Amino acid sequence: MSRSTLIKPPSTLEHHSPIENALQLLPLTDIGPDIFTNARPLWHPPGARGIFGGAAIAQCLSAAQFTIPASDYTVHSMHCYFVLAGNSEIPILYHVERVRDGKSFITRTVQARQRGRCIFTTTISFMRTGSGGSVTVDHARQKPSHEECPPPPDGEIELTGLRDSDTPFESVRCAVKQGNTRQPQDKILRQWIRARGKISDCPPNVREDEILRGKRLNQPGDNHQAHLSALAYMSDSYFIGTVARVHNLMRFANKRNIERTLKGFSGSEAEKQEMRTYLERIAKEEAEENDGIKPDDRRIGMMVSLDHSIFFHNPRDFRADEWLLTEMESPWAGDGRGLVVQRIWSKCGTLIATCTQEGCVRLQQEKEIKL
């Protein structure tokens, strides 16, 4: 019988936010150095081929951060490839390779493996704080104004049909810029996102008994690494789906598509109802976004991420549990693939990160095309 974790999940830590608990790793020192595993089951979004891609991205970053001096170095870029769909019912092993430790930069590669097969791989680069010198070139894309994008709502957002462990962050869509244009490449999609709850001041990737004894695996600091892992997790929210949205391709607005997705579901009746509620919420968002616009009658046959890159610009100047504004656009799509560019700002206007993602975006064909 398969198990979703290699080790019995530890108790949920009350002082940790939902996203810290969801991303917690455990070191497997008995198996080998720099090997980690997921402490808790990972989310498999309804209708997706595998686990939420942001979980693999974030946990690979967390694993790599274990191997660097936290007080001196901070991640500045990571380049990822989705190789196989992750199975939420099987433990993941994260293997970190210490490629190089330089005076200014540290390089790590991380492979996520299930049953001996690589499902995800990434190369991550860390930069020593202040190594760029006191005199630098500086510029940044400005955050959209309140006239272009209204501020986020006050209070928490109701997670209809979902549990804390499913979506440990919340998001609010903004109106599509140039939503009525017939040119998909000119549309800009925006949303506010933030981790739910409050991210703690102690490292998220530690064993409960070590916390109780007052020990830490990382050096003392402001726990910026937890915010970076949370940002990496959230960066995959509605990412490649941007391609479908700029073409007005609605996946769940048709009730038949919801029933088709639920048909292959093997969970309990209660879990099935939770999934139905979640899909109906997405369908409502799609309908509202396309109100007054003639939808494209073509249907998505396959939409999966192929690669994902994050460039962290101000990695210590934000909190992931405070509202962040994301802006996404798709400059190109063709040959069954699509490219999306994303920018992320803090609420006060600091450009935090720029992300890119290419994905497989295939429409339903008369003859099935295999990936």
What this model shows, in words?
The radius of gyration is 20 Å and the shape is globular. Residues 204-221 have low confidence and may be disordered. The protein has a twelve-stranded antiparallel β-sheet with strand order 1-2-4-5-6-3-9-12-11-10-8-7. The protein is of the alpha+beta class. It contains seven helices and twelve strands.
Compose a concise summary of this entry.
By secondary structure, the chain is an alpha+beta fold. It is built from seven helices and twelve strands.
- Report the radius of gyration as a whole number of Å: 20 Å
**SSE-based structural type:** alpha+beta
Distance linking N and C termini: 28 Å
Strand content: 25-35%
What gross morphology would you assign? Answer: globular
Strand order across the largest sheet: 1-2-4-5-6-3-9-12-11-10-8-7
Order of helices and strands: HEEHEEEEEEHHHHHEEEE
Unreliable segments of 5+ consecutive residues: 204-221
DSSP strand tally: 12
Helicity range: 10-25%
Keywords:
371 residues, globular
Fold topology:
Elements lengths: L17 H6 L1 E3 L7 E4 L14 H13 L7 E10 L10 E9 L3 E10 L2 E12 L40 E5 L15 E7 L12 H5 L11 H11 L6 H6 L8 H9 L5 H21 L10 E13 L11 E11 L2 E10 L4 E13 L8
Antiparallel strand pairs: 1-2, 2-4, 3-6, 3-9, 4-5, 5-6, 7-8, 8-10, 9-12, 10-11, 11-12
Helix pairs in contact: 2-4
